Amino acid sequence: MKTKRLFLLLIALIAVVLSASVVVGFQHHKDALYTHEETELERATMHVQSELDGQLDALQRTAEIGATNPELTRHGSASQRRTLETFVERSSFAGASVIAANGTMTNIVADSGRPDDTVGGDFGDRVYFQRAMAGETYVSEPIEAESGNYILTISTPLYENGTRVGTLNAAFHLEDGDFFAQFSSTLEDGQGLTIESQSGERIYTATPSPNADLMERQTTLSETGWTITVSESRVPIQERSRELTVLQGGALLFVLGTLSLFGWWVYRRNLAQLEELLAGFEALENREYQTRIALEGADEWQHIGHGFNQLSRTLDGHMRERQAYERRLETQRDNLETLNQVLRHDIRNDLQLVLAYGDLLADHVEAGSDGEEYLETLQDSASQAVELTETAREMADVMLTNAADRQQLFLSPVITNVIEDVRSQYTNAEVAIEGRVPETAVLANGMLESVFRNLVTNAIQHNDKAVPEVTVSVDDDGSDVTVRVADNGPGIPDAQKEEIFGKGEHGLESAGTGLGLYLARTLVDAYGGDIQVEDNDPEGAVFVVTLPKAE
Questions:
Q1: Where are the domains of the chain?
Q2: pLDDT tens digits, 83-110
Q3: Coiled-coil segments, which residues (predicted)?
Q4: 143-144 and 192-196: which strand pairing?
Q5: Is 0.85 topped by the overall pTM?
């Protein structure tokens, strides 16, 4: 049942993911449609603004160039009139006039044949005259004529010897919207254009198609203050969006239908075999290694069933071997514990008794006699045997304890205890701590003292000086702690620096079991550290122990 639920959940999850992908994809496409149209609307608005600015700039430049003719400053003269006529004929302006600096119109020419009854009139109160006399080329607000067309006046100052002596006023007819129609023709199909004067009067309109649910973009001409509005209906986009929605629904139905058919096929073909296979694995998890399964259907399932049964037989064999090995290991562990008890108590106690009686016999043996030599040999051999039992006991402890189970141990008390024990045992040696031992914790276990005790003892036993000197120093290296045990002995040849850590290696001819350094390296390796031997300056050897710090 779990497999069925998981399968159905997986099919449902895939259906949701695929459906979401289809929906998101189509929605993204819909959004892209609106974004594209909005971008195109913005582009069209900027294009109309640029073109209209260019046309108005051209009209202003034409008026400014015409105003440079000195004949126009000869107010009321025939040459002034001829110059105006030529200006109107050669430009796109419908008419032109000259107003003197005092506001009196001195000449006017219009292609409409308008009479000159305005000549001599006072136009000093007109805004376009005042702005031109102030030194600028001014584009006036459009004025609606009796014909219904709008007239645009462009005024520019007339100069004589650097002094403004009047204005040239050129009239431009925005005839039936022809002037603006050239801009609307650049728009895309269905887009509309509206232009309003600075006062809010609509001077041109091209209606969008269809004229409903409009998107609009506006901009303002800096020169005239006219507002340009380009509009477009959302209706065509919505129609395309509805088409996409229909396609989206069809795609969803196709995806879900295909997935349902696939799920039904997989369920019928594979789910029964899969459930039996999972049941077999659950049996293996419960260590029922005699489990066998029979999968039917496709050849692939039969191969899987054969492989499972082979795996079950292999695991059963390995488990039997492991159980037998564990029984042997348990027996060896029991024997090792028995040996450890013998070393700890029986043999060590008997050897201590031998040493005690040897000390008693020393008072009864005559100095210089053969008996004294025999007694010294006896005592030396017994002492070495005691040391051997101690090392063997530590070796047994290492074997019985998982040294990899490290814990946080502070190094200072460990070093201090070792130094005090060795000083009490070897009174003829000088054992010192160089500097201060940092309050640092390392990763080790209770056998850490054995590492440094063996290193310090080894440095004394292998020393050829009358007074062996051993110095212990500790450095905190960040992520590690380094302990150095230096002596003033004969040193260790390069050829033996690696061999001395071997099992049973004495190094130089000296006392000792030969197991201390092997035990030290075994423990340090288990702690994840490192131990090396270097030359001391000027003589002797330095054992360098690196241990990982505890966080």
A1: 67-177, 404-548
A2: 999 999 998 898 999 999 999 999 999 8
A3: 308-346
A4: unpaired
A5: no
